[in-house]
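Write out the 3D structure for:
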Amino acid sequence: MSRKNFLILTVIETLLITVTVILESVFNNKLWHIAGIIILIFIFLHTSYLLIVKKSINLLAGMTEEEAIEIRKDPERLKKHEKIAQAIGIVILLSIFFLIYLIYEILG
């Protein structure tokens, strides 16, 4: 996934989160809060998929497309950056369990 497509998707997801937070505060309803958390779960799943499975190292903060191409040419640097991306993806994946627990607490 290119950085442009990822940014467009992130903007759409951010707008959805903002709308659910506003609706939750206006209507004072747990349903909108849970909807926002579910959207966050999908965002985290997608991001962790890109970092762990697709090994999209160009999603790492501050990396330009040119740097990503340069790193892909050097196998040693590529392996290092892929390892970092996978570690970040695993942390994001583990945070999904916290969000699921948060839904459980809201419903309970």
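The mean pLDDT is 86.
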